[in-house]
Amino acid sequence: MDKRVGKYAKLYYSALTGMDFSDAGAMKEKYEERLQKMYDSPVFKVHDIYPTMNVSLIYAVIAMCLELKEKGMNDKEIMDFSDLVFRKRKRTFAMLERAIDTLPDAYRIAEKWNISDHEKRVKDGSITYDRFNVKDGRIEYSISRCMYVNMFEYYGIRSLCKIFCNTDISAYRQLKRHVKFTRYSDLSDGECCHDVIERR
């Protein structure tokens, strides 16, 4: 079995047992089989070409979503489950972001990260920006195409891409001293991703 499958199946199983699924073992085996087939598929090779994206992780999450949908769970329940699966990862990032928030130049750090990320995404073609405007103390951008959304849409679960869309909201929630983040819309359920980042 692919090592990546084993890694994500372990996280999936831990969350299942934590939520007292009586058939957690069988669900884990089914998930492993699905994810292995997804990794072996021609479309994975088509999608796995963007250096800025961890496509193995994205596919692991998509596989979880598909499995849980078949169990009758709704989007909210699946997103909550995903938070449980990746709680340690989220906790680590939150600690780093809170540390950055204590620095007086926290906004400049956020600004540099956004500019750098924009350049890398444009270069590898994973995200299409209709606009990316940087002024002193303010960044505003609009995205009309995103490969995160395209991958979820390919598997018929576009709305669940909000699992990844919400990572921005979670990150900026920790930068409350110096940074204000406003999301007007995202591509998981809208026509564009429209965000504004401002210095407080």
Q: How much helix is in the residues?
A: 55-70%
Tell the overall outline. globular
Largest sheet strand order? 1-2-4-3
Sheet with the most strands, sense and barrel status = 4 strands, antiparallel
- Encode the helix/strand succession as letters: HHHHHHHEEHHEE
Distance between the ends: 49 Å
The beta-strand count equals 4
Mean pLDDT: 95
Query: In terms of structural class, how would the helical and strand content be classed?
Result: alpha+beta
Strand content: 15-25%
Low-confidence stretches: none
Rg measurement, Å: 18 Å
Give the number of helices: 9
Task: Describe the protein.
The chain has 200 residues and is of the alpha+beta class. The chain contains nine helices and four strands; from the N terminus they run αααααααββααββ. It has helices spanning 3-18, 24-40, 42-47, 55-70, 75-85, 87-101, 106-124, 147-154, 162-173; strands at 127-135, 138-146, 179-185, 193-199. α2 (24-40) crosses α4 and α4 crosses α5. The longest helix has 19 residues, at 106-124. 26% of the residues are buried.
